Amino acid sequence: xxxxxxxxxxxxxxxxxxxxxxxxxxxxxxxxxxxxxxxxxxxxxxxxxxxxxxxxxxxxxxxxxxxxxxxxxxxxxxxxxxxxxxxxxxxxxxxxxxxxxxx
Amino acid sequence: xxxxxxxxxxxxxxxxxxxxxxxxxxxxxxxxxxxxxxxxxxxxxxxxxxxxxxxxxxxxxxxxxxxxxxxxxxxxxxxxxxxxxxxxxxxxxxxxxxxxxxxxxxxxxxxxxxxxxxxxxxxxxxxxxxxxxxxxxxxxxxxxxxxxxxxxxxxxxxxxxxxxxxxxxxxxxxxxxxxxxxxxxxxxxxxxxxxxxxxxxxxxxxxxxxxxxxxxxxxxxxxxxxxxxxxxxxxxxxxxxxxxxxxxxxxxxxxxxxxxxxxxxxxxxxxxxxxxxxxxxxxxxxxxxxxxxxxxxxxxxxxxxxxxxxxxxxxxxxxxxxxxxxxxxxxxxxxxxxxxxxxxxxxxxxxxxxxxxxxxxxxxxxxxxxxxxxx
Lengths: 103, 375
Fold this sequence. Notes:
The complex is a heterodimer.
Chain A: E1 11-17, E2 20-25, H1 30-37, E3 43-44, E4 51-52, E5 65-68, E6 71-75, E7 86-91
Parallel strand pairs in A: 1-7, 3-7
Antiparallel strand pairs in A: 1-2, 3-4, 5-6, 5-7
Chain B: E1 5-6, E2 9-12, H1 16-27, E3 32-35, E4 51-52, H2 62-86, E5 97-101, H3 104-121, E6 130-133, H4 134-140, E7 150-154, E8 158-159, H5 162-175, E9 179-181, E10 186-192, E11 195-200, E12 203-207, E13 210-212, H6 218-221, E14 231-243, E15 255-257, E16 262-265, H7 280-293, E17 302-313, E18 319-322, E19 329-333, H8 341-354, H9 367-374
Parallel strand pairs in B: 1-12, 2-3, 2-13, 3-9, 13-19
Antiparallel strand pairs in B: 4-8, 5-7, 6-7, 10-11, 11-12, 14-16, 14-17, 15-16, 18-19
Helix pairs in contact in B: 1-5, 1-8, 2-5, 2-8
């Protein structure tokens, strides 16, 4: 169930967090990249618009929701970084019909 | 046991039915205690879908149709009163609602059902409905799937936030001087006409009125008070999506968007006894129907799911009674605690306070089952 905590590793993978390039170790989560990037927030909540950052880091609290490579409402703590990954702010509730054919 | 505590009414059951009645009694000026079993109870009030729904209720039972309509009509005033009393926004949105039909057969069956409801409604409270074909329906609801044939619409329907409603009723009840006792499963009771004693939570409560609103627990409690409450559990399951920007202008029977943005998918029915485990086959069926109705739902993340037990009277119609053996003892049993909250707080509670159920509730008596069994 649990993975062994890795030894400290060099930051060799480049991703972007809200357009800012940041280097993170292989195997790090997108949420770790958000924290390393020093972003002020990674989402605004869907109801009140309150700013949030990753919190539980284990898939429970949903405060790390982000747009990852264009996919909305992704739990960033549950995604492993890949070179070139674009992690962007989730601004409130997603638009469920985005990409639907116009009526 | 401590010294008996006198009240004017004891309400057993802290769910939507019990707390709506208890608040109604407190509003009538009665000193009232509300006994809530605790989290070992099945708590249908915490698992329901949140519809205020008149269009499917009371086929073949015009009195139930009328009672449901009275409640739907009372809802705006109920919401206003709760806002005034405790500043609660229960999220009532009552723009009418639709039942989607996914085949020509479903559409024909639904049309028959609506026509029967209209015939049975009579003239005093006519039942207005429309069968809406897909072309027009697509103007009303975005992103409808190609398999949707049409829908029935009635203007009475809507939805609320059921947890906010339960919380608001509790706060309004205590705010009106009511006494709420949690973890208070009824341990023993002594019934005499207009003279009841109930032991719960290590305390003794006495009152000339007792109202049994304990959901599925009523089946066992009612006989203690010379009443009968033939109710059974009927399981329903609900799936919840992530929150999305506002998308629907009205609720449907099986898909609705909450005031916080989540989509609730539901409307399953299973006769599995006291079983609240979730069944993948049922969940798959709910999801499949939701995606046929609105294909975009397939792309949404599911974040929660649960099952809960409806309190289903033998014939599906609510049961209200006053005990003949022990006048002053009442029961209320239904699977529509949200829809009927308006009627329970504003119509039923004043009757109970006055000591007499109105004649319009006569057909709701459980005595209807005795007649049938004897026949």
